[in-house]
Design goal:
- The chain is of the alpha/beta class.
- It has one domain: SGNH hydrolase (Rossmann fold, 3-Layer(aba) Sandwich), CATH 3.40.50.
- The chain contains nine helices and five strands.
- A five-stranded parallel β-sheet has the order 2-1-3-4-5.
């Protein structure tokens, strides 16, 4: 990875750095910049952002308002709010994600896109992996759909369950999530930044 590359991080509250109570300065991009001081990072994460939403916080709007010709690398990290709060089917989600990837590539055919899957959720005090969300697909099915879309576009995928299986588990999530449900605390954001940094180094 060229140390002077321009990186834009698209995503929801996890990208933004929300801990369940407040937005933290000590987020993934903050710690990533400590690992790579010359990397120019634009954190475009917005709390409650979705792939299928139509507001200013959502992926289609963020793709529309950013000039991807300025960036060398883009990470896309959405999906958890679609699972929990959106009525759209996985088919619709996949179609919209594909459209946004196409838009980014049209603006900058040379840009390197990386997909970051949602971290584990523990609503109700259990791992939501096999639980169905609002649109009746499970969290596992969400991760599979996102992976399928990324891989169809030759986009590397960061799967936390594979690359950092011990980061968030049933045993440790109360200590590592600021709201003991979904949003990491500063220490966990630092752990995540290390994984993201390694992933960037291997794929950019």
């Amino acid at each position: 990875m060229n140390k002077h590359e321009q990186l834009i991080m698209l995503g929801d509250s996890i990208t933004n750095g929300f801990d369940g109570h407040v937005d933290l300065e000590q987020n993934i991009s903050y710690y990533l910049n400590q690992l790579y001081p010359d990397l120019k990072i634009t954190n475009a994460g917005v709390n409650a952002g979705q792939i299928t939403g139509t507001s200013e916080r959502d992926l289609p709007y963020q793709v529309e308002v950013h000039d991807f010709a300025k960036y060398d690398v883009a990470t896309i990290a959405y999906g958890t709010n679609d699972f929990a709060h959106a009525p759209a089917t996985l088919e619709i989600l996949g179609r919209i994600l594909q459209q946004q990837i196409n838009e980014i590539k049209a603006e900058n055919p040379a840009i390197k896109i990386l997909g970051i899957l949602p971290i584990n959720r523990f609503d109700g005090g259990i791992d939501n992996y096999k639980i169905a969300g609002l649109a009746q697909y499970t969290f596992q099915e969400l991760l599979t759909k996102l992976t399928d879309v990324y891989q169809a576009n030759q986009i590397p995928v960061l799967n936390w369950r594979k690359l950092a299986p011990d980061m968030l588990t049933v045993a440790n999530y109360p200590q590592r999530l600021g709201d003991q449900r979904l949003h990491p605390n500063a220490e966990t954001y630092q752990r995540m930044a290390q994984v993201v940094g390694d992933f960037l180094s291997k794929n950019v």
